[in-house]
Amino acid sequence: MHTQQPITYEEKSIKNTIYIFFWTISWGATFVFASAAVKIWWPESTAVLVAAIATHISLMICVIIAHWKWLKGLDDLQRQIQLYSMAFTLSVTWLIITLLILLEGVENLPIGRFYSEIVVVVMSLSLVFGNIIGMRKAA
Amino acid sequence: MKNKLKVLRAERDWTQADLAERLDVSRQTINAIEKDKYDPRLSLAYKISSLFDLKVEEIFLR
């Protein structure tokens, strides 16, 4: 009988990362589909729109579960680095959002148009920055 | 917290990758523990003590 080799930490990490990649790509595809559904089928075909949004939300849940499993599969140090990075990202995001709310009142400043783009970019950069700092401190 | 992990590993002629695989952690974690940059949690400390068949306080020193 064929016995399965025990999976190593590295293999487990790669597997969980592939899961995240797969679910994120799928989620992205449903986002495109849901966006198209809003533009094309609303308000004529509500059923398609509801199905598109329901699929999108389901995939979103799968992405969250994949991230949770990935985090759970990390060892203590790696998990600590990721959690510190996330805490850093959350703090920076709150600061940026309050700053954007303040700047929204300024006339002739077209900040409101790029609101979500700015937040997404700042969140991504602060997560990468937090990871780099954490990795460097542990190296 | 000081520890004797590097010495114990060297005595057995294991690389950091070997030890990491035995403990089911990343090589970076072993490196960080050996350099006293990271203190492992109790569960990992017990795993290390069990692997080397020593008491936790014999590996991790104050």
Would you kindly provide a brief summary of this structure?
With 139 residues, chain A is an all-alpha fold. Chain A folds into 2 domains: 1-73; 75-139.
Would you write up a description of this structure?
The complex is a heterodimer of chains A (139) and B (62). Chain A has four helices and no strands. With 139 residues, chain A is mainly α. In chain B, helix 2 (16-23) packs across helix 3. Chain B has one domain (2-53): 434 Repressor (Amino-terminal Domain) (Orthogonal Bundle), CATH 1.10.260.40. Chain B contains five helices and two strands; from the N terminus they run βαααααβ. A two-stranded antiparallel sheet of chain B has the order 1-2. Chain B has 62 residues and is mainly α. The chains are: A mainly alpha (139), B mainly alpha (62). Chain A binds chain B through residues 8-10, 13, 75-78, 80, 135, 137-139, and chain B through 20-21, 24-26, 28-29, 31-32, 37-38, 40-41, 43-44.
CATH topology of chain B, which one?
A: 434 Repressor (Amino-terminal Domain)
Helical fraction of chain A equals over 70%
Largest interface: A-B, 13 and 15 residues
- Taken together, the total number of domains of chain A comes to 2
Mean pLDDT of chain A: 88
Structural class of chain A: mainly alpha
Low-confidence stretches of chain B: none
Q: CATH superfamily membership of chain B, which one?
A: lambda repressor-like DNA-binding domains
Q: Provide mean pLDDT of chain B, rounded.
A: 93
Tell me the distance between the termini of chain B: 6 Å
C-alpha end-to-end distance of chain A: 43 Å
| Principal-axis shape of chain B | globular
Second CATH tier, the architecture of chain B: Orthogonal Bundle
